[in-house]
Amino acid sequence: MRIRTLEDYTTAYRKSVETPERFWEEVAETFSWHKKWDTVLDYSFEDYSVKWFEGAKFNITENCLDRHLLTQGDKKALIWEPNSPEEEAIEFTYKQLHEKVCQFANVLKSNGIEKGDRVVLYMPMIPELAIGVLACARLGAVHSVVFAGFSSSALADRINDAQAKIVLSSDGNFRGKRIFDVKKVVDEALENCPSIEKQIVLKRTNSEVTMKEGRDIWWNEEAKKADTFCPATIIDAEDPLFILYTSGSTGKPKGVVHHAGGYMVYTKYSFENVFQLRDDDVYWCTADIGWITGHSYIVYAPLLAGSTTLMFEGVPTFPDAGRFWEVVDKYKVSIFYTAPTAIRALQAKGLEFVNKYDLSSIRVLGTVGEPINEEAWDWYHQHIGKGNCPIVDTWWQTETGGIMISNMAGVTPNKATFATLPLPGIQPVLLDAEGNEIEGNNVEGNLCIKYPWPSILRTTYGDHERCKQAYFSTYRGYYFTGDGCKRDHDGMYRILGRVDDVINVSGHRMGTAEVEDAINQHEDVIESAIVGYPHEIKGQGIYAFVICDENSTKSKEELQKEILQTVSQHIGAIAKPEKIQIVSGLPKTRSGKIMRRILRKIAEGDVSNLGDTSTLLDPEVVNEIKEGAGL
Ligand code: WTA
């Protein structure tokens, strides 16, 4: 099953396209199941439905934990490095992690959680977040982790959409020099969340909190009372494992639903092969478990593979910009996986922070989340990998569950800024605007996938129509990724970025509609339009064009400041626009559609070629916006 040479890759890829069911069935055989599947695959991309390994009975946590107990129970499963280097790290062997997960599963059970119930987690990057996730899976409950930087109203939206019964939180969160009041945010959200019965609170910062009688209980006190063994609830491969909310081009974030069996098979398969995993690897992915990268490649895949996964609570620049490299040195990390935005930020701080540490343990580097630019790739390659570590540029999405296009470390070729080649089982195609497949090499088009893979999303929670609409309606019979892509003369894929109204800020997806809705909540705002523009560190920054009430008594500066606060309140600080320009009108077509193309050009500072503006309702508005932008 393991790919170790270029020839293995070619053979596996061919097989995965010629006989996909046979191919995935063989991979699935390597997991532990209580009962095998009745059918390998049943699907339709026309009227979207996908089922992998239906009828198979299992529990993913038995594959992550129990199956390793006999052979490597004392191997380190999880290493946790705290925010402050002064604080002691914590390590869990497979045996210890198994106990912790079982114990907390018992806590959830005694608080009424059963198979299929939804549990929301809003927590810092502490071991209990991973333990909470796995404890849900142990019971067949559906977890929905919400990144702890989202605001209370964003959290409430997600809890309500998922109709969650329990929320897991902490008193506070250490990040760099700052302490955040996690529980206060959750308490505020819960004022509008009638489905929540209990909040289970982990003590982390010893911040002052108020516990609501009958609703709020302490994690540790509950855990003390609970047994350290909990039988796994046996579920079907096609039962849901988790919901993860993500932004799209329209409306509110949608709850992407992943089902347990296919997700397990694909995440482990992709992990071992892309990173060319070895038994003694210490693997570190710097993502937050609040995003898909953390779900698949901090928690599930590394544990499924019986590896050692490192989890870091802090930020790359605390106490200084050498922290990542200090941690690599401390634990002799051999596989390091991060985002281009972090690479660029650290590159800007200078080499003195890198050269203080011994990075010779690193064997494989990885990047994810956004296109990586050549300068960042070179710096990463030369200064972190010392010129001799492969860099896997892994392209994938919340919806795909696992890595889709990437080189395999040292096996298939690297190519700076290219995700390179599809993994076995993945059939990418480039489509033109009319939906025709673009054949041959040296071409560009919209990236679609034409055949299901085991970890493809199954639905969007509570609204299957929306799932069909968002992913399977643009091009009939294909999964549409929303990304533009180039296939070069060697047949290698290079992701060019989103072609829909999604902006990628520091590797985080933001829907334009979502951010505009938040801005429009300000009482003096009449209308707004946001676009992305190239940003040196973040990849893309948000540029907002806002029409405010003429009668507002506030100054421009006051309005800008308040609009930022409004966005923080409704979504979270991560969605704050970099620039806000107050304008008196927006470029609209006669049918009232905002011409974002023009705004994008202005935001980029390039007005040499604004294209045809004659179809605009009021072409004069463009000149005014240009002037306002100082162009
Ligand atoms: C972008 C993150 C270029 C892409 C795993 C995609 C990338 C979106 C890469 C998904 C990459 C992710 N190169 N672009 N290696 N990886 N993207 O759902 O636009 O947070 O559609 O999943 O990030 O973001 P998401």
What does this structure look like?
- By secondary structure, this protein is α/β, with parallel strands linked by helices.
- 32% of the residues lie in helices and 24% in strands.
- Strands 5-4-17-16-18-19-20 form a 7-stranded mixed sheet, sandwiched between helices.
- Helix 10 links the parallel strand 16 (282-285) and strand 17 (308-312).
- It is globular.
- It starts with 5 loop residues before the first helix and ends with a helix.
- The model has no long low-confidence stretch (mean pLDDT 97).
- 5'-O-[(S)-ethoxy(hydroxy)phosphoryl]adenosine is lined by residues 246, 291-293, 368-371, 393-398, 419, 481-483, 495, 497-498, 504, 509.
The ligands found in this model are: 5'-O-[(S)-ethoxy(hydroxy)phosphoryl]adenosine
Mean pLDDT over the residues: 97
- CATH structural architecture of the largest domain: 3-Layer(aba) Sandwich
Structural class category? alpha/beta
What is the CATH topology classification name of the largest domain?
A: Rossmann fold
Can you identify the CATH class of the largest domain?
Answer: Alpha Beta
Amino-to-carboxy terminus distance: 57 Å
| Major beta-sheet overview | 7 strands, mixed
The fourth-level CATH homologous superfamily of the largest domain is: ANL, N-terminal domain
Task: Tell me the count of domains.
Answer: 2
Number of E strands = 30
User: Unreliable stretches, pLDDT < 50, 5 or more residues?
Assistant: none
Query: Biggest sheet, strands in spatial order?
Result: 5-4-17-16-18-19-20
Shape: globular
How much β-strand is present in the residues? Answer: 15-25%
